[in-house]
Amino acid sequence: MSHKENQPLQMPEWLLENENYIPLQDKDTFVDKSILSVLHLTSKIKMQDAVTKKDCPVTVFLALLGTLLLLILLSLSKSYIFILLIILYLLILLSTMETKPMVMILKASLIVTCFTAVIMLPAFLGGNTYSSIMITTKVFASITTIGILSQSVKWNSITEALKFFHVPDLLIFILDITIKYIYMLGEFTLQMFYALKLRSVGRNNKKYTSVGGIAGTVFLESKEMADEMYHAMECRGFCGDYHVNQKIRFGWMDMFFVFLHVGFIILFIYFGKV
Question: Is residue 58 within 8 Å of residue 253, measured between CB atoms?
């Protein structure tokens, strides 16, 4: 070996210099708010996994039918006393629920009700007091009714119950797949925002321009997921038909639920004549 090959390698001087690089502070408000929004959406869907039979002691088919019936009666009723009785029934149901879903339902109901009250304020000031209060109260009762159903019944059970109403299989399939893929695409979007946050060093005033790239990537990912799902379902012999194997078994809570809603129909007819 030559003498030069035995000499140790010398590090360049620029590698030995200490550099105390302090990046400029940047506001991650856009990224943080986007992450929180996606987390809020996915957490709502994830909470459906915690729904058990205790949250809905009656058959899902009857729960869905009762909700539709209440919405129809609320929209057709002209009696303020009947609306108050329905609200009293809904509040009793809310009192039997856990704190977190109860607060979520009341929060959504109050927000929509306040928004409706603001819209109806000119009519209220113009002299249509009864109609304004009636519409606002109906909105509160309707949103609370839908909220109780969504927090008490799993969404896949709702799509299964739609089969008993002879809803076309295509609509059930679209609804079922939409709910599942909202969560999956939400998780993918969340990873994209985390990657954007981790790779952003220093001040970057053009973070808003990344929305187009994220939206395009999510769109391409959704197309790939759709193709994979299509081939997977085709290999498993799915032909678009939904088969419900579960038979409806009525218990004493189901019978009480039916008699209660029959009572609501009787009250609706009675107060409609008063």
Answer: yes
Q: φ and ψ at 98, to 5 degrees?
A: -70, 165
**Residues 65 and 258: beta-carbon distance below 8 Å:** no
Q: Measured over all CA atoms, what is the biggest interatomic distance in the chain, rounded to whole angstroms?
A: 114
The whole-model pTM stands at 0.70
The radius of gyration of the chain's CA atoms, rounded to the nearest angstrom, is: 28
Task: Please say whether the dihedral angle defined by the alpha carbons of residues 75, 77, 80 and 82, taken in this order, is positive or negative.
Answer: negative
CA neighbor of 70 nearest in space, from 134, 123, 136, 142: 142
pLDDT-derived band at 274 (thresholds 50, 70, 90) equals very low
Question: pLDDT digit string (tens) for 62-101?
Answer: 888 889 999 999 988 888 899 999 999 999 988 888 888 8
Spatial distance between the Cα atoms of 117 and 114, rounded to a whole number of angstroms: 5
Q: Do the beta carbons of residue 241 and residue 169 sit within 8 Å? A: yes
Geometric angle at alpha carbon 83, from 77 and 86, rounded to 5°: 120
Which stretches of 85-152 are assigned E, i.e. beta strand? none
Give the separation between CA 3 and CA 247, rounded to whole angstroms.
Answer: 90
Tokens of 238: 């799915």
User: CA-to-CA distance for 267 and 195, rounded, in angstroms?
Assistant: 58
HSE, side-chain direction, 13 A CA sphere, residue 148: 24
Q: CA-CA distances (angstroms) from residue 162 to 75, 167, 174? A: 22, 6, 12
